[in-house]
Structures are given as structure tokens and as C-alpha cells.
Write a structure and sequence with these properties.
The chain folds into three domains: 29 residues; 71 residues, Beta Barrel (Thrombin, subunit H); 101 residues, Trypsin-like serine proteases (Thrombin, subunit H, Beta Barrel), CATH 2.40.10.10. It is built from three helices and 14 strands. Strand 12 and strand 13 form a beta hairpin. The longest helix is centred in the N-terminal third of the chain and has 28 residues.
């Protein structure tokens, strides 16, 4: 009987440790530091874009960015930089002809997870490398077809226009932000910054549904 109690106690300890481990992993993945460590700047003599290291449903790690950032390609590679000045030449592995999405290889062991379901009226934030700046964050809320960004000077809801894709207010992103991450409060990817139109006063974002469809078999 004593052996049974010992076995049950050991089993409870294992379950507890696994539970704590899962909780710790979830906490780490939702942290700002984790997200920032997986946002990259893509550069060439032709310009710059942003990108984000993601974990596909298969568990493979890719670098995701906007498809139009293919213009940065030189000799079959795009240079990826992190804030610690880590540089890698990444090959293009796939493009989505239906959306402004592209995936490149990644040398990271971990990545940001893709959101599980489309949701509206949730808080979100962007992490990008726009205009040659270090990684910077802007906060907002996903509202149906729009993202109204807050905390940025000059950003007003009347400057954000409903279109076929989700949108990000112009004040939230800068040239070079294309391919940057839009994340929810759990640190999961819910969109990719696509482009901006400074004259019209809004910028496009590839929505979660398009990202999920593109990555379903990756």
C-alpha cells in the first residue's frame, strides 16, 4: 500500500511540474521580450521591410513578411537583421498569390504562434521596424474591418477607413513597416502589416484568416 501512495505522490508531482512548465511557456510566449526577439528587419540596397519569425501548425519555424518585400531579394536571398546585429541571408520558401504574404527560411528554434480564430473588438499591438527605427510598438483595438490605433499623435478613428482587408491607422506604421507583426494580448499573430497610403490616410493589414489559409499545409 505504501508503494501505491508513493506512486500517486510521484504522479501528482509530475503532473504539477508539467502544469507549471506549460504555464511558464505560455507566460514566456505572451511576453513582450519574446515577441521582440522574433521581430526582424529585412534590408537590402533597395530598401527595407519588417518580418516576424512564426511557428507554423506543423511546428516548423518560418520568417513571414509581405509578398511585395520580394523587391529586397539579392542573389536569391533577403538579409534579415535583429536588434543584436545578428544578420542572416534567408531564402524565399513560398509566396501567397491571393494575399500579400511570403515566407522565408528561419534560423530560429522558436517563433510566434499564429492566432487560432478571427476575433473582433480585441486589443492588439504592432511590432515593426518602420523608417529604419529600432523595433517599436503601437497599441490599438481590432474593430471589425478596422484597427483603430491609439497612443500615436495624429491618429484618429476618422482617418481609418473600412476596406476589404483589415486596416491599420497610418500613424501606427511607417515606411519599412510592411511585413511587421500585429499581435493580440496573448502574443499570437493576428495580422501582417501590408502597405500604407499616406495620401488616403490608412494602411492595409493581411488578416488572420488569410495567414491561416496560407500556412495550413506548411
Amino acid at each position: 500500500m505504501r508503494h501505491v501512495y508513493r506512486f500517486l505522490a510521484l504522479l501528482a508531482l509530475v503532473i504539477s511540474v508539467k502544469g507549471l512548465s506549460a504555464y511558464h511557456e505560455a507566460s514566456v510566449r505572451s511576453s513582450e521580450d519574446f515577441a521582440r526577439s522574433h521581430v526582424v528587419m529585412l534590408v537590402s540596397r533597395h530598401g527595407e521591410c519588417s518580418g516576424v519569425e512564426i511557428e507554423a501548425p506543423s511546428g516548423k519555424i518560418y520568417t513571414m513578411t509581405a509578398r511585395h518585400c520580394m523587391s529586397l531579394t539579392e542573389e536569391g536571398h533577403i538579409i534579415s537583421l535583429k536588434e543584436g546585429f545578428e544578420a542572416n541571408g534567408l531564402m524565399i520558401l513560398g509566396i501567397d498569390r491571393d494575399s500579400d504574404l511570403m515566407i522565408l527560411e528561419s534560423h530560429s528554434k522558436y517563433g510566434i504562434r499564429i492566432g487560432r480564430e478571427d476575433a473582433h473588438h480585441i486589443k492588439v499591438h504592432t511590432l515593426t521596424h518602420g523608417d529604419g527605427k529600432p523595433t517599436y510598438r503601437t497599441d490599438g483595438e481590432l474593430l471589425g474591418d478596422e484597427i483603430i490605433m491609439s497612443g500615436s499623435k495624429g491618429c484618429r478613428s476618422d482617418k481609418c477607413v473600412s476596406i476589404l482587408l483589415d486596416t491599420v491607422c497610418t500613424a501606427a506604421v511607417l515606411p519599412g513597416s510592411s511585413g511587421g507583426a500585429v499581435l493580440d494580448e496573448n502574443g499570437e499573430l493576428v495580422g501582417i502589416v501590408s502597405a500604407l497610403d499616406t495620401r488616403a490616410g490608412f494602411s492595409y493589414m493581411v488578416p488572420l484568416s488569410s495567414i491561416q489559409a496560407f500556412m495550413a499545409d506548411k
